Amino acid sequence: MAEDAPDLTPLVKALTSAPTMFGVPYMYAMFNMVVTAVVFLATKSLFTLFLILPIHSFGYFLTLRDKQIFNILRVKGAPQSKALWGVKSYAPGDRA
């Protein structure tokens, strides 16, 4: 009977979650840095570097509610092909 039992491997939660940087998903942290760098280059003011804090805080509080919130928002948004084809499709002939 013991031979019929499936082998179970424990699931490590850290291996299933997205990589984070300072508590927010890595891609959101990169987005934050790019936005802040662009604003800094446009204004040439060191004070714009403090823009990182409110943007990061916003993402951090969203992530506290749900770790996958940015993946959910990305999936719920319009696909990139909508601008090209005019519909949510991968090709103009898709009927799915």
Automatic annotation (TrEMBL):
Keywords in alphabetical order: Membrane, Transmembrane, Transmembrane helix
Keyword Transmembrane helix: yes
Record field: transmembrane: 21-40, 46-64
GO annotation, cellular component aspect: membrane
Highest taxon in the source lineage: Bacteria
Location relative to the cell: Membrane
Keyword Cell cycle on entry: no
Name of the molecule in the record: Conjugal transfer protein
Annotated organism of origin: Phyllobacterium endophyticum
